[in-house]
Design brief:
Elements: E1 2-6, H1 11-21, E2 25-29, E3 42-45, H2 47-56, H3 59-65, E4 67-69, E5 71-76, E6 81-86, E7 97-101, H4 102-115, E8 119-121, E9 126-132, E10 135-140, E11 145-148, E12 150-153, H5 160-165, E13 173-184, E14 200-205, E15 210-215, E16 221-228, H6 234-239, H7 242-253, H8 260-266, E17 268-278, E18 286-287, E19 290-292, H9 307-324, H10 328-355, H11 361-374, H12 377-384
Parallel strand pairs: 1-2, 1-12, 2-8, 5-14, 12-19
Antiparallel strand pairs: 3-7, 4-7, 5-6, 9-10, 10-11, 13-16, 13-17, 14-15, 15-16, 18-19
Length: 399
C-alpha cells in the first residue's frame, strides 16, 4: 500500500513515519521548500503528544530539542498570581512537556524521515486529487501526477485537501488574537525571583495584551505576546518594520507587572503579526480514499497547547487503523470513531482559554476561581495523560 501525504509541517513527517511502521509506503508533498530551522516561533509539546512521538520512535529527537516545562503560571496585570496550569503527568521515563522551536522540530523530523527512506517532494503543492477505483491520483503544482492507494492531508488549518474532500467544508475561524514572538539571548541574566524560574511558562494577563516568557536552560528567554485586535492584513504586515512592531508591543505592555518590556526591548523578533485561527466541527473528514488529520481537520486555538500533540496522536491512530482494518474505507471510519469526540472537545477547550485573554477586571476574578476549582491535575488529566499503545489492535467498532 502507498500513501500520498500532503504537507510537511510537524504532522507530515510524523504521519509518514507512523505509516512506514505500519508497513505502508509514503511520499510527502509540500508546496514550500524544506523547513528553515531558524524561522518561526516556539511552542510546547505536551506529554500526550510526546507519547505519540515515542510510538513513532522519535521521542529522543524531541528530548534533544526541548526544554522541560512542568506548568504555566498565570499572573494578573498587577502581579498577583491567579493560578498554575499543570501540563500533565510525565511519561514513564520521566519526560515532561517540552518547549521547543517549531521549525527546529519540523526540520529534525524531516531529516529523520529521509534517513528512514521516506521521499519528500518540495515546491509541489496539491492542485487536485480524484479517486479512480482503488487508487487516488494527485495533481501537483509542478505539473506532475502521483498515484497512491490513499491520500492524507496534513496541510494545516487552511488545508486545500479539506476543500477537495468537501467543497462546502468550513474555513478556519480567526480567534481575535494576533501573535508575536521571539527570544532574548542570555536574557536569564537580567531576571530574578519568580521571573527567573525555569521549567515553566510565566504568563501575564496585561491591561492591553497577554505576555508569556520561558527561561531556557541555556540562559535564553523565549517570549510571546498575544494582542486582542482585528486580524492583521497582508498590506499592514508588509509595510511594518520589526522596530515598529517592537515599539507597538512595548507600548502595549507598558505599566504591566513583570519583565515584559525589558525582554521585548532586548529580544529578537522571530514571529510578527501572525493571525491565530481555530477550526471546530468539520462534518466530513474523509471521502474517496482521501482524509484530513491534524489541524486540517480540527485546529485548536494555540492557547490550548495541543495542536501539534493532537496531530501526533492522529498520525499514530490512523496508521494503526490502516494496519489492522481490511480496507481503506473501514480504516478511515474506525479512525474517525476513535478521534472525533476527543479532538472536538479539545478545540472547544482552546476556544474558551483564548476568550480569557481579553483584558478586564472581571476576567481576573473569574480566572482565580477557574484555577482554584476547575483547572486541576485531576480535571485536565483527560487531555494531557492520554496514552496510546502501538501494539493495541484496532477494530471497526473502536470508540
Amino acid at each position: 500500500m502507498k500513501a500520498i501525504v500532503v504537507g510537511a509541517g510537524v504532522a507530515g513527517p510524523l504521519t509518514a513515519m507512523a505509516l512506514q511502521r505500519a508497513g505502508i509506503e509514503a511520499v510527502v508533498v509540500e508546496r514550500h521548500g524544506p523547513p528553515d530551522p531558524r524561522s518561526g516561533s516556539w511552542f510546547s509539546f505536551s506529554p500526550n503528544g510526546l507519547d505519540a512521538m515515542d510510538a513513532v520512535g522519535v521521542l529522543d529527537l524531541a528530548k534533544g530539542l526541548g526544554s522541560p516545562t512542568l506548568r504555566n503560571v498565570l499572573v494578573g496585570a498587577t502581579g498577583r498570581e491567579l493560578g498554575a496550569l499543570p501540563l500533565g503527568a510525565p511519561l514513564a521515563d520521566g519526560t515532561p512537556a517540552l518547549t521547543m522551536k517549531r521549525s527546529e522540530l519540523t526540520a529534525a523530523l524531516v531529516h529523520e524521515a529521509v534517513r528512514r527512506g521516506i521521499t519528500f517532494r518540495w515546491n509541489a503543492g496539491l492542485i487536485d486529487a480524484r479517486r479512480d477505483g482503488d487508487e487516488v491520483h494527485a495533481t501537483l503544482a509542478d505539473g506532475t501526477t502521483l498515484t497512491g492507494d490513499l491520500l492524507i492531508g496534513t496541510d494545516g488549518v487552511h488545508s486545500p485537501t479539506r476543500c477537495l474532500i468537501d467543497p462546502a467544508a468550513p474555513a478556519a475561524r480567526y480567534v481575535g488574537l494576533t501573535n508575536f514572538g521571539g527570544v532574548m539571548p542570555g536574557g536569564a541574566a537580567v531576571l530574578d525571583g519568580v521571573d527567573a524560574v525555569t521549567e515553566q511558562w510565566r504568563m501575564v494577563f496585561g491591561k492591553r495584551a497577554f505576555f508569556g516568557h520561558h527561561v531556557h536552560p541555556n540562559g535564553d528567554v523565549v517570549w510571546f505576546v498575544n494582542v486582542p485586535e482585528p486580524a492583521i492584513s497582508p498590506e499592514e504586515r508588509a509595510r511594518t518594520t520589526d522596530d515598529q512592531w517592537r515599539q507597538k508591543l512595548i507600548t502595549l505592555m507598558d505599566g504591566d507587572t513583570g519583565p515584559a518590556t525589558r525582554i521585548i526591548e532586548g529580544g529578537v523578533l522571530e514571529l510578527t503579526g501572525d493571525n491565530t485561527h481555530d477550526l471546530g466541527h468539520v462534518p466530513t473528514w474523509h471521502r474517496d480514499r482521501m482524509i484530513v488529520i491534524g489541524d486540517a481537520a480540527h485546529a485548536p486555538a494555540p492557547s490550548s497547547g495541543q495542536g501539534a500533540s493532537m496531530a501526533a496522536e492522529d498520525a499514530v491512530v490512523l496508521a494503526q487503523c490502516l494496519r489492522d482494518l481490511p480496507d481503506v474505507d473501514s480504516a478511515f471510519a474506525a479512525y474517525e470513531s476513535r478521534r472525533r469526540a476527543r479532538v472536538e472537545k479539545i478545540v472547544k477547550t482552546g476556544a474558551r482559554s483564548s476568550s480569557t485573554k481579553s483584558p478586564g477586571a472581571f476576567q481576573q476574578v473569574m480566572l482565580r476561581a477557574i484555577f482554584k476549582y476547575a483547572v486541576t491535575p485531576k480535571n485536565t488529566a483527560w487531555m494531557y495523560d492520554h496514552r496510546l499503545h502501538w501494539e493495541e489492535r484496532q477494530a471497526t467498532n473502536s470508540a
